[in-house]
Design goal:
Helix content: under 10%
Strand order of the largest sheet: 1-2-3-4-5-6-7
Mean pLDDT: 84
Structural class: mainly beta
Strand content: over 45%
Order of helices and strands: HEEEEEEE
Low-confidence stretches: none
Radius of gyration: 31 Å
Distance between the termini: 110 Å
Largest sheet: 7 strands, antiparallel
Number of domains: 1
Number of strands: 7
Oligomer: single chain
CATH architecture: Beta Barrel
CATH topology: Porin
Shape: rod-shaped
CATH class: Mainly Beta
Amino acid sequence: MSYLATRLIPLLVFLLLLPLSLEAQFRRGRQAEVVPRWAPISIGAKVGWDSQANATTVGGHVRIPVVRNGTIELYPSAEAIFLTGTKEYQYNLDAAWVPGGAGGGVFAGAGVGWRDSVIGMDVGDPRQTLFGFNAFGGGKTNLGPMQIEVVLRWTFLNE
């Protein structure tokens, strides 16, 4: 046998036996399950209009996800209602259903509300706390690192 044949034949056998792909870096069997992260807690400011009191409202809210993907949220909020010469305060504890989860979209919810209200329009009139129920709906969208939402809220207070 020639020198070329003695070197070429073992090289060809080696190349034929070499596997086409190596699986040393891959897991065999079931792949690891990817667990989605919790939706983030969000804090925001809000400005609005109280049509019953005919006054501007300013407040804040927190959105706390109850389930991992954010489709159900706890939605506490507080507002100051600026009446002529005085202020009223409303506190809400609501739950919201957000079908789009952390990505946003339409949402709806309900909860309870308390309003620290004036009985009359005079400065010396006593205040009272009114209790009631809330219903709301709206939509939210992400705009870069910020989230913008529009909410229509109805509060049914026991007067």
